[in-house]
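If you are new to this repository, start here. Below is one unmodified record pulled from the training split, so you can see the exact layout before writing a loader.
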Amino acid sequence: MEYRLLGQSGLKVPVICFGTATFGGSNEFFRAWGTTRVEEASRLIDVSIELGCNFFDTANSYSDGMSEEILGKAIGNKRDQVLVATKVSSPVEAGPNGRGASRHHMLRACEASLRRLGTDYIDVYQIHGFDALTPIEETLRTLDDLVRSGKVRYVGCSNYSGWHLMKSLAIAEKYGLPRFVEHQAYYSLLDRDYEWELMPLGIDQNVGMMVWSPLAGGRLTGKLRRNQPPPSDSRLASTFANLPADTSKLFDIVDVLDQLAIETGKTVTQVALNWLLQQPTITTLVIGARNEVQLRENIGASDWNLSKEQVQGLNNVSAKPVPYPYWHQRGGNAERNPIPVR
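And here is the target side for that same chain:
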């Protein structure tokens, strides 16, 4: 398993991270993701560690805290062998202060996460979404207290816009507060918006990227095919209506993935994931797995590389029009743009 530094930190993490949103299934939304319980989770954790994937991502809002609880029990006495990331700021309690990145909420939420995980520290603690009502200084000073107390080792964020992340980094530098070493965000062959603002920022500021939903919610696994209904036994059967309007782009991408799967002897899923691992700023892919077969297939996306020509073929078929002001920057001033046209 390849390991990469997590942004501007000395922490090395595997390029595949096991996301445990499939643990629990406490409500209809999360049941569609998975209903893994402790016994099966323990087996998946053991397989992950065996294959070099010792990084596990969860959130306090996943299945009303059940994901954290099951993950903690599944890890058991192997805590010193693994890295655990969790998140805060999504709604988890009733009332006006049961969410967000305020000092009041974060201190309570961190203690609750530690109890559910059965640990005395969190390796990577992430703000799950930007809180526009709480001053960034308050959020970062609270994270500073958690780091100094030993309850948190590194801090990150998730689903920030470019200005959210850059302002947070600037305030951290100004006041000597903990710096976000990583940003967990959505990125896939089907949706490449990350490249316009967040990727250049990540390159410039050395912020690592943890990719959530790298297979576009399962749409890039090869289960969806042109002129065919989604399989009835897949969660895609219930989410097909939420596909982007331009479904022809999806099927064009899958056609190329099929071709490259034959060329490489890999699966469609592995090819789609490996393309991401060739992109700038990408530190790790957060993959989900409801069983050992899926887990082994996803981890198999690492330790090999698509050729430059194969990567470019996927770049071409998945490309979308460049939004303003990036088309202007990459036009007459292209020679001074540090990010190559992709």
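Two things worth knowing about this chain: The longest strand covers residues 152-158. The two ends are 28 Å apart (CA to CA).
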